[in-house]
Every structure is written in C-alpha cells, then in structure tokens.
Amino acid sequence: MRTIFQRWLLPAAALLALSEAAVAAGPVPVFNDGFETGDSCAWSVGPSSCLGPGFQFDTPEVIVGPGEEITYCYYFHTPNAETIGIRRWALTLGSVAHDVTLFATYDATHLPADREPAGTLSSTNCGFVDMGSSNTLANWAYAAHNPFEQIVLPADDGAGSPLAVEVVAGQPMFLQMHFINPTGVAIANTVRLAAEALEIGVGYTKTASYFTYNNSISIPASSAGHTETRTCAAPAGVEFWFLSTHTHQFATSASVRDGVIPLVQSADWENPEILVFSSPGFYTFSPSGLTYECVYNNPTGSPIVSGNSPISDENCVGIGYFFPATRPLLCIDNAGPF
Length: 338
What we know:
CATH architecture of the largest domain: Sandwich
Strand order of the largest sheet: 1-21-18-24-15-25
Radius of gyration: 19 Å
Helix content: under 10%
Largest sheet: 6 strands, mixed
Shape: globular
Strand content: 35-45%
Number of helices: 3
Low-confidence stretches: 3-51
Order of helices and strands: EHHEEEEEEHEEEEEEEEEEEEEEEEEE
CATH topology of the largest domain: Jelly Rolls
Mean pLDDT: 86
C-alpha cells in the first residue's frame, strides 16, 4: 500500500517551552526521558502507557536580520544514555525557518564522529557537502518544510515488529536550518527537535536512510530545462517504506523512479512529495536501481553547481528509508551504496 505522507498539526500541549536553563545547557532528556504525560496519547502514536522514552530540545536562538536569508548548523550529541529505537521524529521550525534537515555524522569506518564540537552554532561550512573538509560522513535522518512536521515510522514490518531508527548513546548529529526573513525587522528563531523512542526492551527491526546525492551538477548559465540524472544500485534484499526528493530553488521538478517506473514526482522544491509505503505493500527496487532526476532553470549569468547554499548552489537528492538495515547508506553520483 502506498500513500502520500500527511503532515500532522502539533497539539498545543506539545508546544510547552523548555526553561532557559535547559536551552542553554543544550540537548537534555526532558519529561522523564520522554514526552510529557498525555502528549503521545493525544498524538495517537504513544505506547499503552502514553509515555515513550526519547528526548526533545530547542536550539540556541538565531537572530535573522530584516530581509536576510541564511543557513545555520547546530551540532549536538543526543542525550540518551543507552541505545534507543526512534519511532517518531518531529520538528517545530519557528516563524522564519524555511526548512530544516537532521543529519547524523560518522567517520570513514562509520563510527559516530563529530563534524564540529557539540554545542557549535555556525553559518560556515554548513551542510551535507562539508564531508570532505571534516573527514566525516553526514547521513540524512529527517527533514521538515512546514512550521510543524513529524514522521511516525511503520508499526509493523510485515512480521509484527515495529520499525525504528537506532540511535546510540551520545550520537553526534546536526540540524541544518535554512532561514528566510521577509519582514523589515530582525526576528529571533529557535528550532525544536523531538524524538520519541520505543520503550526500552521492545524489539524492533532497524530501518535506516539511503541518501543519493549528485555531486556533479553543472547547470549552464541562462539555461532552461537542464536535466541531471543519476542511477544508484539499490541495497540488496531490502524493502523501502519512505521515498522523497530534495533540491534548491532553481529546480522545477525532481523525481525518483525504478527504471522507467515513476515513484516520486516533486514539482515544488519547497514542498517535495513524500511517499510512504505500509505493510504488506513495502517497495523493493528492481535490478534497474534507484534513478533520481532533477530539472533546473538557471536565469543567472553563471553556471550553478552542487553545494550547500540554497541561495547560489543546487542539490539533486533522492532519499529513502529501507529495512532491514545495519546502518545508513550513501550513494554519490552513481557510486554506492557505501
């Protein structure tokens, strides 16, 4: 079964602010290592106790100047003291956050590794493309494009076990936060990340992301309809439950397909299509692989290439969540997964 993912509205009870001390201290477990009593029940996704373990925190405040467009990254360690299985990611963006992406970082052997020290808030070298200079890999975990978005992972893998994203104790991660302030006054903005986990001891099937990235984009100056297409091998022996795309503002469309079979077609870079499959209809790619394609218009007088900046650079990304998984996977251009 395939459905277009629906974004859920955040109940008022879930918008309770953290104390200034908690925010200053960085990410910490809250509400007895989970959400406030009743929130999970209100969202209809909590366990029978309506208290799921997990964490939530607000980023430090970012002051976005009048008319300013800027991207910041906030680096942190997850506050869980033991490995947990995340069953829901949620992001509350604030008034001038345009989109926010959550990444986990690893070294070349895929051990958890810091890209920047925990607590760093920086607008330089900010994003996925920094992996060369920092010698770290950034693996996509979740992204939001609306004031509040959440994703609840499938509760049944087809054999009765829930799916979960495994997060080790103190996992290094960062939030890439793209801000646009259309007003004439400076605005302070924080972003809230919430992660709800399965109860400790509950068995789960591990799911992880497959992030395909075109690092060779070259959009000629003053061009229209320029197309960039790459194909990645799909991981063997797995099923996908989530597919989407990611681009910047010069893209007119982005798609994911299996050979010639269309799966995702995004016509709006600000609101990419999200396709969720559920049991018993999870998706298995054919030997043709995962093809991701993006079409661009470049009205500027200079070529546009791959990069972090949503203002001057472009991305062409196909994103999926698959299971069973041992870890997240990447494909750069046509090379991967690794």
